[in-house]
Amino acid sequence: MNPQISLPRQHGGQPNFGSVPSRSRSEGLRMPRFFKRLFKFPQMDFEMAIWEMTRLIIAPKKVFRSIYYHTKNTWHRPDPSFTYLLSFFLLLTSLGWGLAYADGVGRTFRIMAVFIFGHFLAVSLLVATAAYFLVGQILGPGVPGLPGRRRGLFVAPGDTEQLEFGYCFDVSIRAFFPIWVFLYVVQFILMPVIARDAYVSVFFGNSLYLLALGYYVVITFLGYNALPFLHHTELLLSPLLVFAVLWVITLVADYDLPKHLAPVLWAGAGLRHGV
What we know:
- By secondary structure, the chain is mostly helical.
- It has one domain.
- It has nine helices and two strands.
- It has helices at 33-36, 46-58, 60-71, 81-101, 105-138, 165-194, 199-225, 239-252, 257-265, and strands spanning 18-19, 154-155.
- It has a two-stranded parallel ribbon with strand order 1-2.
- Keywords: Membrane, Transmembrane, Transmembrane helix.
- Pfam families: UNC-50.
- Its main location: membrane.
- It is found in: Membrane.
- The chain crosses the membrane at residues 82-102, 114-135, 175-195, 207-224, 236-253.
């Protein structure tokens, strides 16, 4: 499934998560295109979203290379199709977790809400907000005497060296996809095996967390590395070393992450601690 990728416009304004009108400043700020298209389902490119999901695991670098050309002269893609699609997948997996480990219908609905609005959207917004300020300040082109030049949430037309908040959100929700694959789907399927009291179960279960978090870091790095005006983005890979050290520590201590950590992470959703 290959999406149609169009060439970027050579002239014209640059749309953003919070776009600025190109006619005159007196018109004020227009509604961001992302919110304009929030409920226009026929205009959403779900085919492109599915293509991105298939590439995020096997070839994540291609995803961020295509976003600029697909959105025409902006790094942010004002299309909520990926968010809707991943939320739908989380809805399905929350049903599985609820039927298997929750007590009652009410707690199953609570799991749905926590999975989608807490784990996915709230965490993605927090990560995007932190990246918007920290990455823009530390890794941006900057000005003399400052570590980085702060970019406004609303990007001025024609300014190609602006870190868009919408793009930060694009990166964070795409980095969450492998988390969903490994910790919401694969972990659920393998939970009866990896939660056993055996060292092999500890090894494979803890490696699952390392793989999920490692993918999150790598996809985040690739997302910001695609921006030509950011420098030393390899610093974003530093958490990999921390995760690897923690993985070794858990193996030496014989600490089973799926058995002990999953009930804690999902406890707020109403799951039994006997996961």
